[in-house]
User: Fold this.
Amino acid sequence: MKKILIIEDSQSERELMTLYLERNNYQVISTDNAADAMELAAKEKPDAIVTDITMEGVNGFELCRLLKVYPDTQNIPIIACTARDRDLDRMWGQKQGIEIYITKPYSEEDIINAIKSVSN
Assistant:
């Protein structure tokens, strides 16, 4: 069973994503902040990470940069799931190491397809 780390500061979004993933036989670990995410990613070695971009403190772009610097986490694929829908955000995300960029609102199919494409 593949393990997915979700970083999302909205509890309802985190719960929805968890529901979608567990329904599709993924193991889910989650947190609402980037600091905990760094620790969880290094400790749990997830198969993929799904992160929001707009969060208090360290945002999703900064988190991606940090994850890609450390040897323990640099090869974990990252998916952004965010309300930020500008081309500039997408381009900047790609430069930070984001493999797939999904905008909210998203469907169950959107999130599952994204995870399948980065974790196969």
